[in-house]
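Continuing the series of single-chain predictions for the mutant panel. This is the parent chain; the variants come on the following pages.
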Amino acid sequence: MDPHSEPTLAQVIAWAKTAGELVRANFNKPHTIGYKGEVDVVTESDKKSEEYLLGQLAQTFPHHAILTEESGEHAGESDHLWIIDPLDGTVNYAHRLPIYSISIAYQLRGQLQLGVVYDPSRDECFSAERGQGAFLNGQPIAVSGATQLIQTLMVTGFPYDRQSEDYFRSLRLFGHITSITQGVRRLGSAALDLCYVAAGRMDAYFEHSIHPWDIAAAALIVQEAGGKVTDIHGEAHFMKEPYSLIGSAPGVYAALLAELEKTR
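Parent structure:
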C-alpha cells in the first residue's frame, strides 16, 4: 500500500477488533499493574494493545504522526495524525469490571476523519467517517430526541488529579446535574460514554480535564450520529488544550451548557 494514501474505516475497524481480542484474552488473568499517578493505572494489556496498533501503523502508514496514551507523541507528517487510546477504562479493566474500550481516531489536516471505538466485552464496534453517519456493528445509530433535562440520563467522569480545581468543580457539577435530570452515571470509559450518547442510550456527556485520546474517535461518532459536540465552554473547536468536552443530543445541549456555566 502507498504509505502516503489515506486509511479506510474498514482498516481501522479491523485493527480495533484485533487489539480488543488481545485485551479481552487477558481480562480474567492476573494483571501487572503500574501507576502513572495516585489512581491512574496502566496494565500489561494497555501496552500489548498499543504495541500491536503502533506496529500496524508502522507497516501501513510509516510517515504518519501518532499521539497515543502510553508512549506519547511519535513524529511524522503533521497533516496525518492518529490519536489512540489502546485501552480506555484501565481502572475498570484492572478490577475486572467489563467496561473498557479501544479507541482509534484519524485526523487529516486538523479535522477528524475516522473514529472507531470497540467494546470487546460486548463485541460492540462504534464507528464513523466524516460525512457518512455513525454506526454500531454496521447499523446506523442516532442521538436521542430528548428536549427536557428532567427527562435525560447523563454521563460524566472526574479528573485523576484529586487536588485540582477541576476535580472539585466536577463534584459540584455531578451533584447539580443529578438534581435536574433522571441521573448522572460515571462508567469509567469516556470513549464508551460518548458512544452511548451517539447510540441514544445516554442523552449527554460532559467532562472537565480530559485527554485527546479519550475523546477524539467518539466525539466524531457523536457528531455523525447527529449530536452537538463542543468544549465545556461551548467552543466548537474542542481538540485543543485544556481539553474538555460536551457531547449531547441537540435538543438539550443549550440547557445543559447553561447549567454547566452556572456551576463554576
